[in-house]
């Protein structure tokens, strides 16, 4: 089987943000389900974004009507346990108080794995 893929030079359209999805739902009900009007108004109200196609709008409306939300479903996988908001604040605060200490001592003092501590410090841009 031969599959031919044309490279049009265009990037695939990025995922719609939550704000854009909410806007689409508002436009859908404001325009009483007119795809054409929704797409036109979306282009006006969200000028930097590419307009979604009819299928995208329809799936979004179905999801909203079925579940009452347009937010993403929670993802599966192992939950993050160290990188919590509480731990980020604790690391930030501890770093300000003792900026000379090594990450090894920080991790022992805070009872957080060193690799997690390094990730937190990187996200906080501390070291």
What string, H for helix and E for strand, traces the elements in order? HHHHHH
Number of helices: 6
Helix residue percentage: 55-70%
Give the beta-strand count.
0
Q: How would you sum up the global shape?
A: elongated
How is the main sheet built? none
User: How many domain modules?
Assistant: 2
Note poorly predicted spans. Answer: 1-12
* Rg on CA atoms, Å: 23 Å
Strand content: under 5%
What is the end-to-end distance? 52 Å
How would you explain this protein's 3D organization?
This protein has helices at residues 18-30, 35-45, 54-67, 85-97, 103-110, 114-124. The chain is elongated and about 60 Å long. The protein folds into 2 domains: 18-67; 85-124. By secondary structure, it is an all-alpha fold. Mean pLDDT is 84; it is low at 1-12. The chain has 6 helices and no strands. Helix 1 (18-30) crosses helix 2 and helix 1 packs across helix 3 (54-67).
What's the quick description here?
With 127 residues, the chain is mainly α.
Question: How would you describe this structure in keywords?
Answer:
55% helix, 6 helices, 127 residues
Itemize the secondary structure elements and their pairings.
Blueprint: H1 18-30, H2 35-45, H3 54-67, H4 85-97, H5 103-110, H6 114-124
């Amino acid at each position: 089987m031969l599959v031919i893929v044309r490279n049009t030079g265009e990037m695939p359209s990025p995922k719609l943000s939550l704000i854009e999805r909410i806007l689409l739902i508002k436009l859908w009900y404001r325009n009483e389900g007119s795809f054409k009007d929704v797409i036109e108004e979306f282009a006006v109200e969200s000028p930097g974004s590419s307009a979604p196609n009819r299928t995208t709008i329809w799936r979004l409306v179905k999801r909203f009507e079925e579940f009452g939300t347009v937010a993403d479903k929670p993802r599966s996988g192992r939950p993050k346990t160290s990188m919590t908001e509480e731990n980020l604040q604790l690391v930030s605060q501890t770093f300000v108080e003792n900026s000379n200490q090594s990450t090894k001592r920080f991790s022992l003092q805070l009872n957080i794995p060193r690799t997690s501590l390094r990730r937190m410090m990187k996200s906080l841009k501390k070291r």
